[in-house]
Design goal:
The complex is a heterodimer of chains A (about 110) and B (about 110).
Chain A (H helix, E strand, L loop, with lengths): L4 E3 L2 E4 L5 E6 L6 E7 L5 E8 L2 E5 L7 E4 L6 E5 L8 E8 L6 E3 L3 E5 L1
Parallel strand pairs in A: 2-11
Antiparallel strand pairs in A: 1-3, 3-8, 4-5, 4-9, 5-6, 7-8, 9-10, 9-11
Chain B lengths: L3 E3 L4 E4 L4 E7 L6 E7 L6 E6 L3 E5 L2 E6 L4 E6 L8 E8 L8 E3 L3 E6 L1
Parallel strand pairs in B: 2-11
Antiparallel strand pairs in B: 1-3, 3-8, 4-5, 4-9, 6-7, 7-8, 9-10, 9-11
Classes of the chains: A mainly beta (about 110), B mainly beta (about 110).
Chain lengths: ~110, ~110
């Protein structure tokens, strides 16, 4: 069964450092998403991406965040200067043309020290 | 006002009983509704989607939607210990691009043998 993959599974970084979280969505999917989930809290929408551009973004997704689809398979989330409060699980997700099921990746757990 | 609200639980359900989960949403123009299951430390996985008023059944799960009351529910029949998880309600204002999913904080369900 096709699946969304994410790397790395865990990342520890120092405050102020840049991090790039990587995702490989399911190959024929067209809609891509990033979410974050702070420990014990709800899943929060960050950004959606369609047709090579941002479709929607939340108020969390400020200038410190950016997304790219550098090639036909990868989808990345960059945090330019990490803050302590960026510590969370980050999930990538994708949806195909049928729009029925949003598949989530296993997540990257980011810890900012 | 929270956009998607759920009782946090935990909801304790005896094995074999029916678990009833509720979700309310604030945006009247919301069109599509989803129930996800999330095991601790894992990513959400889709259980059901529902778009029209009424009931939709899939195996042991039944989703119910009432747009006039801005209310969506999930029934789990014949609850099993493996159903112990957090259940997330998600809502989307269907746009051209399926851009933004809003998640509730989730209801924790504990099925006791």
């Amino acid at each position: 069964e096709p699946e969304v993959t994410q790397t790395p599974s865990h990342q520890v970084t120092q405050m102020g450092q840049e991090v790039i979280l990587r995702c490989v969505p399911i190959s024929n999917h067209l809609y891509f998403y990033w979410y974050r989930q702070i420990l014990g809290q709800k899943v929060e929408f960050l950004v959606s991406f369609y047709n090579n551009e941002i479709s929607e973004k939340s108020e969390i997704f400020d200038d410190q965040f950016s997304v790219e689809r550098p090639d036909g398979s990868n989808f990345t989330l960059k945090i330019r200067s990490t803050k302590l409060e960026d510590s969370a699980m980050y999930f990538c997700a994708s949806i195909g043309t049928g729009r029925e099921t949003q598949y989530f990746g296993p997540g990257t757990r980011l810890l900012v020290l | 006002q929270k956009e998607v609200e759920q009782n946090s639980g935990p909801l304790s359900v005896p094995e074999g009983a029916i678990a009833s989960l509720n979700c309310t949403y604030s945006d009247r123009v919301s069109q599509s509704f989803f129930w996800y299951r999330q095991y601790s430390g894992k990513s959400p996985e889709l259980i059901m989607s529902i778009y029209s008023n009424g009931d939709k059944e899939d195996g042991r799960f039944t989703a119910q939607l009432n747009k006039a009351s801005q209310y969506v529910s999930l029934l789990i029949r014949d609850s099993q210990p493996s159903d112990s998880a957090t259940y997330l309600c998600a809502v989307i204002r269907t746009t051209d691009s399926w851009g933004k999913f809003q998640f509730g904080a989730g209801t924790q369900v504990v099925v006791t043998p």
